Structure prediction request, 284 residues.
Amino acid sequence: MKIIETPREMYDWSRKMIGQGKVIGLVPTMGFFHEGHLSLMRTAKQHSDKVVTSLFVNPIQFGPNEDLDHYPRDLAGDVAKAEAAGVDILFTPNSERMYPGDNLTEVSVHSLTENLCGAHRPGHFAGVTTVVTKLFNIVQPELAVFGEKDFQQLAVIRQMVKDLNIPVRIIGHPIVREQDGLAMSSRNANLLPEHRKAALSLSSGLNLARQLYAQGVRSTAALKQQVQEHVLAQKETRIDYISFVHCDTLQDVTEADAQTVLALAVHIGDKVRLIDNGRLELSN
Ligand code: PAF
Prediction:
């Protein structure tokens, strides 16, 4: 595996590969790899000749009071893991290289970014769509793989690609979970041991909503009430949102059906904010 640090070298490498008829698959990440990231890399490998993983903690998608400074980092560990997963290029630009100069341009998607994380993290999605556009331009992939844990992010990126005729096929990968159900996230590394039980309230809250749905409960107000009580029963949880939305439009729904996704964002203690999501109706 080769490490590339500059956008110029990355672009030149990609043009050369494309000239040789190779299909490039991109996995955009912010590093601190876990099994979730590695499964995105393996999926990219199944669909492409060359896999590029970008590792860039993108400052413009973090708000002033968010965890940019505490975002977990481990370059040496990430290099070893990406190499073992069969990645060809680890693209690790720094901020000066990604954002030289004035940066007067931003890519933003409307409507889909207004609720859920968009309502709680102003500017976050514009930061994501701007950096992902830049990565697509630099890496020139034919396809890119994103995790479904960031359910809203995936919907926003699919919309952006469609609206802007960006010739990149977007592949979503199901959430990878720990054995106890916790959705894998780099941010789990910042959880204190005593917060683990509270962190599990997201996935167990989702399971609770699924059970109630299977028993016939359709009112999302009633479902929300139960999930909210379940999460708040754990110490040091603070809810950002518990929302029942349509899987494509991300609009709130009052009556749950097969298209309904429960999305949650919960602060655990002072430093960690976790998200999780899933359809209420499980397909067989
Ligand atoms: O999902 C992430 O890790 C980031 O939002 C992404 C897509 C790499 C953009 O910085």
In short: DSSP finds nine helices and nine strands in the chain. The first strand starts at residue 2 and ends at 4. Residues 28-30, 58, 61, 128, 131-132, 150, 153 surround pantoate (CB under 6 Å).
